Amino acid sequence: MAETNPRQVIKGDDIIIHIDAKRALHATSHSLNISVDITEFKSKDTSGTETEPGDSSWTVDVDAFVVVQEDITAHSAEDILSLTLQKKKWPVTILSPVRGLKQQYQGTGIITSFELSSSAKENATYSATITGSGELTPVVLPVKSPTKP
Hints:
The protein has one helix spanning 77-85; strands at 16-19, 22-24, 27-41, 50-65, 74-75, 89-95, 103-117, 125-132, 137-140.
């Protein structure tokens, strides 16, 4: 029987992080980490310890090559370092151009670390961590109608 709703595995290349409306130039990986604090309580009327969800926190890690390239649509390693040194909150968006995904995620974050790595005869790389300030909010994307040939 033919599958009516085929699966589509999303490749890592299709998940993009924007910082201040621009992607990181030549990024090799991104990681999104979300944690929810738990509040525990126990009383004479509970059966064991009970938990309730508390505040949430999030971070985004970016790894990329250090590349010199004129690209006004992306942040170079120098740009990310400059944003870090400005010690400001930046808009952050996690998105994908893949059709079928229903939302992207937006928030505000501070670049809290920047690490440059350069070994002899190896490509120079950098890593940056963005720590969220406030909630990471899902934004429902408009439904795209299929294009007709």
